[in-house]
Amino acid sequence: MSGTVTAVSSNEVYSFTKPNRESITLLAGLGVEGDVHAGQTVKHRSRIAKDPTVPNLRQVHLIHEELFDEVGAAGFTVRPGELGENITTRGIDLLGLPTGTLLHLGDEAVVEITGLRNPCYQIDNFQKGLLKRVVGRDADGGLVRKAGIMGVVRTGGVVRPGDAISVELPAEPHRPLAPV
């Protein structure tokens, strides 16, 4: 399984969206250099309020660009970085990967998938009604979160649009993604 990085984004201040960059540098054990969410412990405001000493399992946020196509068919316009992701991908079913999958990005960087992004009300503040498009139900009525995945940086490196992504699955049995 392989895909491509279509955009990279970061922001040094808390903001829902993140501006696109020519490249980002991933730092092992920390996240995206200069990004407000980089660090060994939690950096998302809601998580800091609960316990600021918890390990940061949300160092890097990845979204599949195919989601933008899906919500576009329903009348929404979403571009890379606008949902707060650091890396926008194409060609990989990110949501279908198991916990612990390693994503090799470009020549050096490796991100280990820790779980799903749990979409919040800020998505509706960005575009009213969009939250219902990125959260749905499966055939059994279970909640389906489509707003991307989270990971931690295992090996640092520079990541750019156009970089190849290769997938290394963990040993079985595979654990499905859950919100982190």
UniProtKB/TrEMBL annotation:
Coiled-coil blocks: none
GO MF term set: catalytic activity; molybdenum ion binding; pyridoxal phosphate binding
Domain of life: Bacteria
Pfam families for this protein: MOSC (PF03473)
InterPro entries, alphabetized: MoCF_Sase_C (IPR005302), MOSC_domain (IPR052716), Pyrv_Knase-like_insert_dom_sf (IPR011037)
MOSC domain residues: 18-168
PANTHER family to which the protein is assigned, alphabetical: METAL-SULFUR CLUSTER BIOSYNTHESIS PROTEINS YUAD-RELATED (PTHR36930), MOSC DOMAIN-CONTAINING PROTEIN (PTHR36930:SF1)
Protein name (database record): MOSC domain-containing protein
Organism: Streptomyces carminius
